[in-house]
From TrEMBL:
The keyword Membrane applies. Belongs to the cytochrome ubiquinol oxidase subunit 1 family. This is Cytochrome d ubiquinol oxidase subunit I. Its main location: membrane. GO terms for molecular function: electron transfer activity; heme binding; metal ion binding; oxidoreductase activity, acting on diphenols and related substances as donors, oxygen as acceptor. It comes from Actibacterium naphthalenivorans. GO terms for biological process: aerobic electron transport chain.
Length: 537
């Protein structure tokens, strides 16, 4: 029954988190794209760029509001479903979330109102400043949330207090500049930029296919392709950095993603495709790329990457060390200030492995009573499900390279072929709109599912983190959250499609006059300007 509670709690949080992240990437990227468009408007004073800013800004606003609604609901689950985690880790995990609310969220929420209602009340430069502050707030919000999440992946700057039975922060600097958190931040933000670029590209391509709002669509494609190409390349490069940091902090996750069952001689090869078999501990029909994994994971040709079998053996040793720490902790808790110095010293020596002893709590109330068989089972629990991680990672990477190819093509056509886009390419751009969201969700699946069985890697098992709820409570709230989030998602899609079909409706007369004059000037010359009328092929 306890396992059912754990799995239902995990399912509920996974569902709400993945729903919420349907809104986040577009908010991150579209805020910056809108700021870039308004910057061009202020520099050129061309009304078409103001119209672009308002149109894409309205889509940003719809997405922003619904993203906030889903995010606030999600955070309540820490206290509701994960009360022991909140008690055990709250002093550390709560700090970046509080800063996110006080600094980033209020900055974002304050200036987003000025963005929408300040067009005729602020000067051009003042409004542009507001727009960039909205983008800054959006990205700062992601920073603090990912610092909190990165600490769960690599718990640095904290230590366990045996008197309070809680983790306490020892260095905010280490928590903030955690290598995993920083790598996750830049990678996630870049993925959001790609999402927005593909979205703008796809919607603009749809306008060109329909022969509507062609001036806005061509300029939007030009901005999206340039911004998207840089972002797509960044995602791949920064994703490689995440893999390198996992070599130090999450070796089991890296081994599972690669289905590396045993340590290979350095430099390790990269498995391009294959069919992992956990029972046999081998990957069938594997195609290897020599040296690639060694270079990705270690940046060298001489350093080994440990395999799953060796990491399981290491986990068993750490479980046995953790039992020693648990025994010493029990004595310290009983004797308090009268605990012998040698007991305290023993605990300090083995305290880093205390979390591994907690893995035994699924099988025995007191880890000291665990049998060798139970220890072996618990050590094998440290291996996440390999095949879902293996294939999720590869689909994500394939999509990443697909974005690079797509953005390269549209950047080339926009920059060197006079905005002449073949209709099949425009259709492909429309079809690709959902792809960045798929890639982003796969990325979060790899990051979070690959951390199991830990809530905080190596410190607190997921099975210990949950609240004491009944299965019926969890089923009821799970149904409620899924219903609520589905309704919000339907509302989001309905509003987005409504305003996309409606098209740019603000500053129409002023923009039409400017466009007519601009088109006349182009025709007066050689007709080969970058935004000259050219039908889609």
């Amino acid at each position: 029954m306890e396992l059912d509670i754990v799995e239902l709690s995990r399912l509920q949080f996974a569902m709400t988190a993945m729903y919420h992240f349907l809104f986040v990437p577009l908010t991150l990227g579209l805020s910056v794209l809108v700021a870039i468009m308004e910057t061009v408007y202020v520099m050129t004073n061309r009304p078409i760029w103001r119209q672009m800013t308002k149109f894409w800004g309205s889509l940003f606003g719809i997405n922003f509001v619904l993203g906030v609604a889903t995010g606030i609901t999600m955070e309540f689950q820490f206290g509701m479903n994960w009360s022991y985690y909140s008690h055990y880790m709250g002093d550390i995990f709560g700090a970046p979330l509080a800063i996110e609310g006080l600094m980033a969220f209020f900055l974002e929420a304050t200036f987003v109102g000025l963005f929408f209602f300040g067009w005729d009340k602020l000067s051009k430069r003042a409004h542009l400043t507001v727009t960039w502050l909205v983008a800054l707030g959006s990205n700062l919000s992601a920073l603090w949330i990912l610092i909190a999440n990165g600490w769960m992946q690599n718990p640095v700057g904290a230590e366990f207090n045996p008197m309070t039975m809680r983790m306490e922060m020892t260095s905010f600097f280490e928590v903030m500049f955690n290598e995993v958190a920083q790598a996750k931040f830049v990678h996630t933000v870049s993925a959001g930029y790609v999402t927005a670029a593909v979205f703008v590209l796809g919607v603009s391509a749809w306008y060109l296919l329909k022969g509507r709002h062609t001036e806005l669509a061509r300029r939007s494609i030009s901005v999206a392709a340039s911004f998207g190409l840089a972002s797509a390349v960044s995602v791949v490069v920064l994703g490689d950095e995440s893999g390198y940091s996992a070599t130090h902090s999450q070796k089991m996750k890296l081994a599972a993603i690669e289905a590396m069952w045993h340590t290979q001689p350095a430099p390790a090869s990269f498995t391009l495709v294959g069919f992992p078999n956990r029972e046999a501990r081998e990957t069938h029909y594997a195609i290897h790329v020599p040296w690639a994994m060694g270079l990705i994971g270690t940046r060298s040709l001489t350093t080994e990457i440990p395999g799953i079998a060796e990491l399981v053996e290491n986990a068993e040793a750490r479980i046995r060390s953790g039992i020693i720490a648990y025994d010493a902790l029990t004595q310290i808790r009983e004797l308090r200030d009268d605990a012998p110095a040698d007991v305290v010293a023993t605990f300090e020596e083995h305290s880093g492995d205390l979390g591994f002893a907690f893995l035994l709590r699924r099988y025995v109330d007191d880890p000291r009573d665990a049998t060798d068989k139970q220890i072996a089972i618990a050590s094998n629990d440290t291996v996440p499900q390999v095949w879902p991680l293996f294939w999720a990672f590869r689909f994500m990477v394939a999509l990443g390279f697909g974005f690079i190819a797509t953005m390269t093509y549209f950047f080339f056509m926009a920059s060197f072929r006079g905005m002449r886009f073949p209709r099949p390419a425009l259709r492909l751009a429309v079809i690709m709109i959902p792809a960045p969201w798929i890639a982003a969700e796969l990325g979060w699946f790899v990051a979070e599912f690959g951390r199991q069985p830990w809530t905080v890697d190596g410190v607190l098992p997921t099975a210990m983190s949950v609240s004491h709820l009944s299965v019926s409570d969890l089923l009821l709230t799970l149904a409620g959250f899924v219903t609520l989030y589905t309704v919000l998602f339907v509302i989001e899609m309905g509003l987005m499609l409504k305003y996309i079909r409606k098209g740019p409706y603000m500053d129409v007369a002023e923009t039409d006059v400017w466009t007519e004059r601009h088109t006349h000037r182009l025709r007066t010359h050689d007709g080969k300007g970058p935004f000259a009328e050219t039908p889609a092929e």
